[in-house]
């Protein structure tokens, strides 16, 4: 299976502990294609349909998702997408490059990297 950046997938997030996201749910693949192909891993942010309002929840509209879905850019996971990983991954769609860039910008707010002096 080839999974590309910007792909919407369903993933089993169990087992989880503490504040980690739970259950089978959609997620967006943020990792670049080269990373995915060379490592059998994907980096994802889960998608929720909660009514809660948080600055790190980014609205996303896609026919493959429930209405009012939001990407949780605060929870980031690197997961084995192969059958051996046991996450039961199913590709359900794709998002636009504009949506991907918006999500990526919010995702980067998790970090405080000094890129320039």
From TrEMBL:
Keywords: Toxin-antitoxin system. The keyword NAD does not apply. The keyword Cell cycle does not apply. PANTHER family: ENDORIBONUCLEASE MAZF-RELATED. Belongs to the PemK/MazF family. This is Endoribonuclease MazF. It comes from Staphylococcus marylandisciuri.
């Amino acid at each position: 299976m080839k999974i590309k950046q910007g792909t919407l997938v369903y993933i089993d997030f169990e087992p989880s502990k503490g504040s980690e996201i739970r259950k089978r749910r959609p997620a967006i693949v943020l990792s670049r294609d080269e990373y995915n192909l060379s490592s059998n891993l994907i980096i994802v942010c889960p998608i929720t349909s909660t009514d809660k309002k948080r600055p790190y929840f980014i609205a996303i509209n896609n026919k493959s998702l429930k209405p009012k879905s939001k990407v949780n850019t605060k929870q980031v996971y690197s997961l084995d997408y192969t059958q051996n990983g046991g996450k039961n991954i199913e590709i359900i769609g794709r998002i636009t490059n504009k949506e991907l860039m918006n999500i990526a910008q919010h995702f980067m707010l998790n970090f405080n990297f000094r890129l320039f002096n």
